[in-house]
Design brief:
About 35% of the residues lie in helices and about 25% in strands. Strands 5-6-7-8-9-10-11 form a seven-stranded mixed β-sheet, with helices on both faces. Helix 6 packs parallel to helix 8. The N terminus is likely disordered.
Length: about 270
């Protein structure tokens, strides 16, 4: 693989003839295999759990799902760099890569809560061109590829047309504890402007905004694999995505504001 130091170069040319839709088809294949593994362990409710250096848990299912995806990459696209949560990552600067979160919502998985998902995305020249969220336990899958729209279980989706924060449903992560990275006071101020709020966290709140089931989701303290598929899913569904300060979104900043676009500016102004 061509490198300069630890920076991968010229891989875009190697994969230049592969379309975003073709990459999405590959992500579907990877998700099918990962789903089989996570579903097996979730239903069995017997798996090993370890604590990572950052004090977050990782299960046998996380490891085996990512291993299987990496095997598929090795078979189909052996030159493709991988940025994965559990088994090592290529440099952020790689001009094309597969980003893997084998289980987003591992703590839910451990507790027997069926809201967890495999997150996959292809990043090319610093832009996500295909993304997928697969939640096997609830038979739910969302996907999008650049210029081809966003879908939930095969049906096109679109964000809501609610145009006032005062009429909006807002999703968020944790209000307190180590996951409360948005800032409790700012977040509570934002939530106070809406008539309805839900603290669901993880992948679910972004996908619900994309489906038009709520107007806004806010979170922080995240890794690129937590966020990689979200912007393309929201954008292709007609929504808007940014960082907390309103600047252009990218998955390496660790925070996100996504909305149906109508209420986005008011959300950003409130969080500043």
């Amino acid at each position: 693989m061509p490198k300069l130091g630890n920076v991968y170069l010229n891989l875009t040319m190697l994969f230049k003839d592969i379309s975003s839709q073709h990459w999405l088809d590959f992500l579907m294949m990877c998700a099918d295999e990962a789903d089989a593994i996570t579903d097996h362990y979730f239903r069995k409710n017997q798996f090993k759990i370890q604590e990572k250096p950052d004090l977050t848990p990782v299960t046998q299912a996380d490891i085996e799902a990512e291993e299987k995806i990496r095997q598929l990459v090795q078979h189909h696209y052996p030159e493709l760099p991988i940025l994965g949560e559990e088994l090592g990552s290529c440099p952020e600067e790689a001009d094309i890569k597969l980003i893997i979160d084998p289980i987003d919502g591992t703590k839910n998985f451990i507790r027997g809560i069926p809201h967890f998902a495999t997150l996959l995305a292809i990043e090319k020249n610093k832009k996500i061109i295909a993304g997928l969220v697969s939640a096997k336990a609830t038979s739910s899958r969302w996907w999008a590829s650049l210029g081809n729209g966003a879908f939930y279980n095969g049906q096109p989706i679109h964000v809501s047309s609610v145009n006032r924060l005062a009429d909006s449903l807002i999703f968020h992560g944790s209000l307190y504890g180590p996951e409360a990275r948005v800032g409790t006071e700012k977040l509570l101020t934002l939530l106070s402007k809406s008539p309805r709020q839900r603290g669901v966290g993880d992948y679910l709140m972004y996908t619900m905004v994309a489906c038009g089931w709520g107007e806004c989701a806010v979170d922080a303290g995240l890794k690129p694999w937590d966020l990689a598929p979200m912007a393309i899913l929201l954008n292709e569904a007609g929504g808007k995505v940014s960082l907390l300060d309103g600047s252009a979104f990218h998955p390496y900043a660790g925070n996100i504001v996504c909305s149906n676009a109508w209420v986005h500016d008011e959300v950003i102004d409130t969080l500043k």
